[in-house]
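Worked Example 4.2. Consider the chain below.
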Amino acid sequence: MGLRDRFYTPQTAKAILSWRILLGAAVGIGMALVSIPVVASVGVAAAVYVGSVVSAMPKGMHRSRIDPFTLSEPWRQFVQGAQRADRNLRETVGGASDGPLKERLGTIVDKLTHGIDEAWMIAKRGDEIDHAVRRIDPTGLRSKLATLQRQGAEQPSDDVESAIASVESQLASAERLKEQSAQTAGKLRLTQTRLDELVARAAEVSVGTGDTDAYQHDVDDLVIELESLRLAVEETRRS
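Applying the procedure from the previous section yields the following structure tokens:
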């Protein structure tokens, strides 16, 4: 979060109206009692108060390092595409004429950078799901199931039936994970297309021939969609 975002939070509001007011007042009164000039006392008291409020504000979020080469396909491709779009967008905005429009576009680009972070986390989770499928090894399980089914047909027993049920349960888990992966990849692929579209439209907006309000609205929508998708795939950890 930037300084402005960190300021407009419930945590900061509580800090502003907390015991810190009394702390600042006590410092000012204490300095006045030892014959420090009033102006200096007020200044120091205000500095103490502001400093204590700032220290209580939420800390800026640390961006995790994005490394697409730690991912398998198609997740690596998605992240690389998002990074490429981010670079192109920043180059477009950086080449715009200085002024209010460029400053506003800079704010929009920063918002979209948050969306890139969301895409990275979605891709990481998708990659984890694919790794989970590979660990289950559906191919090996199907071979094992076929062997157990032949054995069950030749020599039926409760143990064989239990083993068959266990393998079928594992295969069902693998299929559910594969479905989650496919759905996530499809949605992330769609957001990539929309991101590329936003990069293309940025050129029009940067020279004043595009609708800046509509552009910002579309960026906000994409970021919200990525946030929702990230929350959805994170929920699979608990399902």
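The first helix runs from residue 3 to 7. The chain has a mean pLDDT of 86. Compare this with Example 4.1 before moving on.
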